[in-house]
Design goal:
Blueprint: H1 3-20, H2 31-35, H3 49-69, H4 71-77, H5 88-107, H6 114-138, H7 145-171, H8 174-182
Helix pairs in contact: 3-4, 3-5, 4-5, 6-7
Length: 183
């Protein structure tokens, strides 16, 4: 390869890098990274966010393992008193799914992507809301203290997840970021 081909190739590479926004000033993200939406990092977390993320992960893991290892406990909490083994397989599958969700929540804090954290909070809130709907529909005719506690607990847990979802979006909105840079 002669020197003119080498210069042409170098010039072509330089032009490609400029078009893609790669290289250049520090602190500016690549256009490709911005196009793919990979620059949506969380920079500020609301107070108590990581505590809630960890607590909900631990709660899911405990619910899951109890359902897998001792399905009769989960069934008795739901008011099911059938002969042994009738719903054990379904309860164990449910437990494995819930435990998996807990493990995903446990490792989610390693991610700083806002989409991952928002989906995790939405899934958590959705789980508690669906649990609430199931409690209300199955125990509508039987209003006991246990049912009322279940309803209150699911409302509270769903509300906490939605609160942190909202706070995560508020403290990381472009306006909040620009306000913090102006201070």
């Amino acid at each position: 390869m002669d020197s003119s081909d080498s210069r042409s190739a170098a010039s072509s590479r330089l032009k490609s890098r400029k078009v893609l926004g790669m290289g250049g000033e520090h602190g500016h993200k690549s256009k490709i990274v911005r196009l793919l939406g990979l620059d949506d990092f969380i920079t500020v977390y609301p107070p108590g966010f990581w505590l809630w993320q960890s607590a909900s992960a631990i709660l899911f893991i405990i619910i899951g393992f109890v359902s897998v290892l001792c399905p009769w406990i989960s069934l008795s909490l739901l008011g099911e008193h059938r002969e042994e083994g009738s719903n054990y397989m379904a309860t164990r599958l449910y437990g494995a799914t819930i435990a998996g969700m807990g493990v995903v929540d446990w490792i989610t804090p390693a991610s700083a992507y806002s989409l991952v954290l928002c989906v995790s909070l939405l899934r958590c809130s959705h789980f508690f809301f669906v649990s609430l709907a199931l409690i209300v529909s199955f125990f509508a005719d039987e209003v006991s203290q246990r049912v009322l506690w279940g309803i209150a607990l699911n409302i509270a847990l769903s509300a906490v997840s939605l609160f942190y979802l909202h706070q995560l979006k508020v403290v990381n909105s472009p306006r909040a970021r620009s306000d913090s840079h102006n201070d």
